[in-house]
Amino acid sequence: MRKILYSLVFMLAQLMAISQNTSERILNSEEKLSIGGYAQIDYNQKIDGETKYNGIMDVHRMVLMVGYKFNERTRFITELEVEHVQEVYVEQAFLDYKLKEGLNFRAGLLLIPMGIINELHEPATFNGVERPNLDNTLIPTTWREIGAGFTGRIGDSGLKYQLYVVNGFLSYNGSGLLRGSDAFRRGRQKGAESIFSNPNLSGKIEYSGISSLKLGLSTYLGKSQSTLYDGIDKDNQQLIAVADSSVLGLSMIGLDFRYLKKGWNFKGQFNYASVKNTDEYNEFAAKDMGSALLGYYLEAGYNLLHSKDADKKLVPFVRYEKYDTHYKVDGISKNVKFNHSDVTAGIGWWMAEGAVLKADVQWLGNDGPDDTITQINLGVGIWF
To answer: What does the pLDDT read at residue 18?
Structure first.
């Protein structure tokens, strides 16, 4: 019993020590064992003057974050996530080794550094009950794959970099997985017996050398993965040609910014993806993947309590999103329903740094006829 009590006290001390930490802060912790986590509980209700819809109440995600420090150079970070009460995922799991000042080697299950939300996805770090829709479609948050690479900061320049070689999206496993409606989302392998047939490159540079401003430039280059390459004769050109038809080439670029000053916070993101071989892939897999995808959003918020209590915030905000998974197509007709224009307006009350209540209204539209949806969202966000 005494050992259990000591363990509980020790874990509580760790939780208190990292109450303001993300996984990056856990990496910088001086503690041997660090524990954190986050949770998101949602209520979503569609509204229509002529049609009745049931609301959906969901424990969207519960996440435990653990960091372990082996020595001054070597650390391990992982996130274990339970979604919708019943689905269990590993969201991150990597070793980080400090080679020298400003240069770390990292290997394992890694978050792809594209955009803002894919890495900073804790519910107490963003406005709105749900993550931006752009980050669920063009960037299929939470996007993570197995790989290795380097990360660090360049002196006092305000520059931070990440560069990884990873496995890519799975485009074919007996049937096609990638399509126009949700782009790359179904192709995430999430580290679960991931197929590896082509290496991919992921990188990001962030600049924070200007007061109150953070800028990001990210890229992702490579090809999708296919099970059709497994076990075929290297000299059998016919089988290789068939396998090649199940693969897409992907070149993605992202720009993002965050500006926070005197209670105001502004945020924006732009993403463009060029997809190669869509004509062959769509014909082979009977899909409708676009040959170019484009999206952006702009968001503004203001903390009404900024001059009072630093631990408390009351932030009304508005966000406009535009994203099109059929920005360009090759060999198929454009689907105008894939060209979205969304507006989200709401408010968040941070009663403490990592505890927030949220409410917002979304007007979700596309270029299709009579396809606008109005939705009310309420949520609880926890982060420690």
So the answer is: 33
Q: Please give the Cα distance from 222 to 199 (Å, whole number).
A: 7
Identify the residue whose tokens are 């059929």.
326
Residue 16: the pLDDT is 34
- φ/ψ of residue 7, rounded to 5: -65, -40
Q: How far is CA 111 from CA 92, 142, 144, 324, in A?
A: 7, 7, 4, 24
What number is the average pLDDT over the span 284-290? 98
State how far the Cα of 295 lies from the Cα of 253, in Å rounded to an integer. Answer: 11
- Which residues lie closer than 8 Å to 272 by C-beta, 6 or more apart? 252, 253, 292, 293, 294
Of residues 102, 105, 85, the one with CA closest to residue 94 = 105
Number of domains in the chain: 1
CA dist 301 and 212 (Å) reads: 15
Query: The domain that contains 364 carries what CATH number?
Result: 2.40.160.10
CB 272 within 8 A of CB 291: no
Of residues 218, 238, 260, the one with CA closest to residue 111: 218
Is it the case that residue 21 has pLDDT exceeding 60? no
Q: Say if strands 225-226 and 213-223 run parallel, antiparallel, or are unpaired.
A: unpaired
pLDDT in tens, 214-243: 999 999 999 999 999 999 999 999 999 999
Rounded Cα gap, residues 184 and 102, in angstroms: 33
Average pLDDT over the chain, rounded to whole?
Answer: 92
Q: Which is higher by pLDDT, 50 or 360?
A: 360
For residues 224 and 189, is the Cβ–Cβ distance under 8 A?
A: no
Q: What is the DSSP letter of 72?
A: S
Cα separation, 306 vs 318, whole angstroms:
18
Q: Which domain holds residue 120?
A: 2-383
